[in-house]
Amino acid sequence: MTAIEFNNLVQNVVLSLRPVAMNLTRDADDAKDLVQETMLKALTNRDKFKSGTNLKAWLYTIMRNTFINNYNKITKRSSNIDSSEYLQYLNTDESYITQNKGTATFVMNDINKAIANLSEEHRTPFMMYYIGYKYLEIAEKLDIPIGTVKNRIHIARKELKHALKVYNRDI
After folding, report:
1. Same domain, 57 and 105
2. Residues 8, 66: one domain?
3. What is the pTM for the complete model shown?
4. Which of 16, 37, 59, 97 is buried most, with the most CB atoms less than 10 Å from its CB?
5. Mean pLDDT of 117-143
């Protein structure tokens, strides 16, 4: 099966994954993230899919396992995280992400610059969400309404999407 054929099959199934993701996560944003992560894993591991087997079941299995792994990571994380530990990373210019060679280095540099160019009020909730905080936790830590947290993260995503539009690839 060629990559294009596989991508077409996956595109046909992606709509049926969304309700299942919503059922697992009970949050629209988390469901979208789960579907996206599932699709990424499926496309990167397409060589592991056996032609003639049930693609939908294979994707559901990837989604379920991804959800379980993410859930386990979150529940193992201590609920009493010191926010000052997080804030020290925000105020430094050093990158704590392992850099790959070649193109990945350029991409990561562009992403880091785009994040650094966000205003403080948008960058802080976005980065907290990125490292695993839930909306409610962010609202409590920053002492702002949950709607404001959602809005700031939305704006940060929109600004990052615009800043990184050169990397946008439509399949």
Report:
1. no
2. yes
3. 0.45
4. 59
5. 92
